[in-house]
C-alpha cells in the first residue's frame, strides 16, 4: 500500500479501536496537520492563522477537546501536492470541534478567541521543534483514556510507517492461511488495532512494537527501516525497566498505606506482549539467545497470570507461534505444549473427511513408506505424527482445488482448522525425542517439509535452518554406516526406507534454496542414493523420476513444483517443463 502521510488518533473513554467515524464525528477529524508544510506567505495569511508555525511534523498534540464517541482512525492523506494551496475551511487546524459556523475575523482584526488559539498553537509548535519527533512517544502525562493529554495525536512519519507495517504485514502474517482464503480479512484483526491503542498508553509498548517492526523490515524485507532496530530495542528495555520500577513503587506505597486503588499491576498482559515483541525483534536480527530468554520470561509471566487457558484465543495463538519458531531455530523444545491450540483430527474437530481421503490414506499405507521405514516402525509417536501430517496434506490439496475453482465455497472454518493443526503438528515434532539417527533424520525431514509447505514466506528462514541440521544428521549417518559414495564411503544404500530417504534428500534440496553448496550436496547424495537403490549403477535422474519420487510420500504441488523445477534447471536435468507426472496424495 502507498505510504500515508498522516495517522490521526481520536479517542475517549468509550472509543472503538480504529472504527469508522460517523457524520457527527467528522467535525472532530478536521485537525489536519500537513507534514513538511512550508510557512505561508503574508498574502495567504487569511487562509488560516495556524499555518504560521511552519513545520507541522514536529507539532506537539493540541489541547484536549471533549469529543463524542470518537475512535482511533487512520485517515488517508489528502490529495494535495506540497506546493498546492489549502482548499477552504476544511483544511484548517481547529482547536475546537465546529458546532456552528463562526464569523471569520477580517485580516488584521483578529478576535480575542482567535488570538488565544493562535498564541497557544505557536507555543506548541515551538516546544515540538525543540524536543524533536520523539516527544510524542516520551511525554505521557495524561490518563489511561487519553495518555497524551489530547484528543488528537500527531504521529511522526517514520513511526507511522512502522505501525502500518505491523497492522498490514507483520500481524496478518501470523494467520496467513485465513488472510489468503478471505482476501485479506481474518478474525483477529481487532487484536492488532488494540495493540496500537496500548502503544499510546505505554512508552515501553510503543518502543517494543516499533523495534519488532523495524527488525523485520531490515532483516527480512531487506530494506532500511526509518529507525535502527537496535536503538529501539535499547529504548524499549529502558522504558520497560522504568515502567516496572514505577509500578512496583506504587504497589509498595499502596501496601504500606493499605490502599486498594485500581492501578496497573507489575505483571499484565500488555507487559507480556511487549516482552514477546522484543523476542520477535531479536529473532529477526538473528540474536536467538536473547529471543529465547525473552520467550522464557513470557512463558513464566503467562503462568503467573493463570496459564494459557486464562488468555484470549488471539493472545494464546500469538504467543505460541512465536515460541514455536524460536524453538525450532535453536533446536530446543517449545515452552508451550503442542496440545494447547491443537484442534485434533478432522473428525475430532467435527468436520467430515473429504470424499476419497480414507482411500488415499490407505494407499499410502500400502505404499510401504510407513511400514518399511525403521523410524516409523520403531517409534509409534513418529508414525502417528506422520499419519496426521498426511491428513493435513490431503486437506491442503482439497482446499487448493476449491480455491482455484470458486474460493467463495471454501469453508473458512476448515481453513482455520488447517492452520491450527499444522502449527500443532510442527510443535509436536519439536517436542519428540529421537532415540537414534534414523529417527532424527525422519523427524527433521518431516519438520523441513512442514515449514516449507505450511508456513508463510516470512517464516521460511526456519525451513532453511532445519534443512542445514538435516544435512549434518544425514552426513553423520552416512559416515557411520559407510553407505553413501558422496561422503567417501561405498557399498549399497539399498535397505528398508529407501523411498523415504530419497524423499528426505529431495525435500532437503528444495528447502536449501539460496545455499548452492548445500543444495549441491543434497542433489549429489540424491543421485548416488537413487543410482544405488535402483540397482542400476550410473542411472541418472530425470524430471519425471524426480516428480515420481516426491509424489510417493508428502507432496504439495502448489508450493513444491516451482522449487523442484528450479532445482532441476540448476542441475541441467533432462525433461524439465514437460509436466508434473507425480500423483500427490
TrEMBL record:
Superkingdom of origin: Eukaryota
Region (Disordered): 17-48, 67-119
Chain intervals with Basic residues compositional bias: 95-105
Comp. bias regions, Basic and acidic residues: 107-119
Protein name: Tachykinin family protein
Organism: Exophiala spinifera
Taxonomic placement: Eukaryota, Fungi, Dikarya, Ascomycota, Pezizomycotina
Amino acid at each position: 500500500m502507498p505510504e500515508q502521510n498522516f495517522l490521526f488518533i481520536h479517542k475517549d473513554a468509550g472509543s472503538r479501536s480504529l472504527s469508522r467515524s460517523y457524520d457527527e464525528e467528522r467535525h472532530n477529524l478536521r485537525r489536519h496537520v500537513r507534514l513538511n508544510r512550508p510557512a505561508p506567505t503574508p498574502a495567504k495569511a487569511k487562509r488560516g492563522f495556524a499555518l504560521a508555525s511552519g513545520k507541522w511534523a514536529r507539532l506537539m498534540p493540541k489541547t484536549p477537546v471533549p469529543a463524542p464517541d470518537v475512535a482511533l482512525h487512520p485517515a488517508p492523506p489528502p490529495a494535495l501536492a506540497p506546493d498546492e494551496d489549502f482548499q477552504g475551511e476544511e483544511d484548517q487546524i481547529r482547536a475546537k470541534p465546529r458546532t456552528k459556523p463562526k464569523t471569520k475575523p477580517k485580516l488584521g482584526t483578529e478576535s480575542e478567541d482567535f488570538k488565544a488559539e493562535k498564541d497557544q498553537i505557536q507555543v506548541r509548535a515551538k516546544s515540538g521543534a525543540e524536543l524533536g519527533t520523539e516527544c510524542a512517544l516520551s511525554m505521557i502525562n495524561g490518563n489511561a483514556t487519553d495518555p497524551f493529554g489530547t484528543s488528537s495525536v500527531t504521529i511522526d512519519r517514520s513511526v507511522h510507517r512502522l505501525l502500518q507495517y505491523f497492522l498490514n504485514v507483520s500481524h496478518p502474517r501470523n494467520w496467513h492461511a485465513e488472510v489468503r482464503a478471505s482476501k485479506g480479512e481474518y478474525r483477529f484483526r481487532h487484536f492488532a488495532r488494540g495493540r496500537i491503542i496500548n502503544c499510546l498508553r505505554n512508552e515501553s509498548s510503543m518502543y517494543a512494537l516499533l523495534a519488532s517492526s523495524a527488525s523485520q523490515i531490515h532483516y527480512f524485507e531487506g530494506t532500511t527501516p526509518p529507525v535502527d532496530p537496535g536503538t529501539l530495542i535499547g529504548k524499549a528495555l529502558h522504558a520497560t525497566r522504568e515502567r516496572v520500577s514505577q509500578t512496583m513503587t506504587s504497589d509498595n506505597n499502596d501496601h504500606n498505606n493499605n490502599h486498594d486503588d485500581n492501578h496497573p499491576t507489575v505483571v499484565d498482559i500488555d507487559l507480556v506482549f511487549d516482552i514477546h515483541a522484543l523476542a520477535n525483534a531479536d529473532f529477526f536480527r538473528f540474536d536467538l539467545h536473547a529471543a529465547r530468554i525473552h520467550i522464557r520470561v513470557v512463558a513464566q509471566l503467562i503462568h503467573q497470570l493463570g496459564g494459557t487457558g486464562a488468555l484470549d484465543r488471539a493472545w494464546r495463538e500469538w504467543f505460541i507461534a512465536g515460541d514455536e519458531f524460536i524453538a525450532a531455530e535453536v533446536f530446543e523444545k517449545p515452552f508451550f505444549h503442542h496440545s494447547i491450540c491443537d484442534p485434533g483430527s478432522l473428525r475430532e474437530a467435527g468436520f467430515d473427511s473429504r470424499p476419497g481421503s480414507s482411500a488415499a490414506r490407505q494407499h499410502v499405507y500400502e505404499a510401504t513408506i510407513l511400514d518399511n521405514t525403521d523410524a516409523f516402525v520403531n517409534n509409534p509417536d513418529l508414525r502417528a505424527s506422520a499419519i496426521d501430517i498426511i491428513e493435513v496434506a490431503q486437506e491442503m490439496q482439497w482446499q487448493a482445488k476449491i480455491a482455484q475453482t470458486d474460493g467463495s465455497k471454501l469453508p473458512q472454518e476448515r481453513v482455520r482448522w488447517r492452520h491450527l493443526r499444522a502449527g500443532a503438528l510442527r510443535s509436536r515434532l519439536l517436542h519428540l525425542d529421537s532415540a537414534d539417527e534414523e529417527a532424527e533424520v525422519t523427524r527433521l525431514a518431516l519438520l523441513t517439509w512442514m515449514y516449507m509447505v505450511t508456513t508463510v514466506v516470512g517464516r521460511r528462514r526456519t525451513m532453511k535452518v532445519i534443512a542445514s541440521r538435516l544435512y549434518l544428521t544425514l552426513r553423520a549417518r552416512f559416515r557411520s554406516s559407510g553407505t553413501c559414495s558422496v561422503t567417501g564411503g561405498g557399498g549399497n544404500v539399498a535397505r528398508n526406507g529407501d523411498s523415504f530417504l530419497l524423499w528426505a534428500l529431495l525435500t532437503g534440496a528444495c528447502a536449501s534454496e539460496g545455499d548452492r553448496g548445500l543444495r549441491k550436496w543434497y542433489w549429489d547424495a540424491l543421485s548416488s542414493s537413487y543410482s544405488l537403490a535402483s540397482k542400476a549403477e550410473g542411472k541418472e535422474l530425470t524430471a519425471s523420476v524426480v516428480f515420481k519420487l516426491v509424489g510417493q510420500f508428502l507432496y504439495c504441488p502448489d508450493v513444491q513444483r516451482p522449487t523442484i523445477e528450479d532445482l532441476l534447471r540448476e542441475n541441467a536435468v533432462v525433461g524439465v517443463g514437460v509436466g508434473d507426472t507425480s500423483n500427490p496424495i
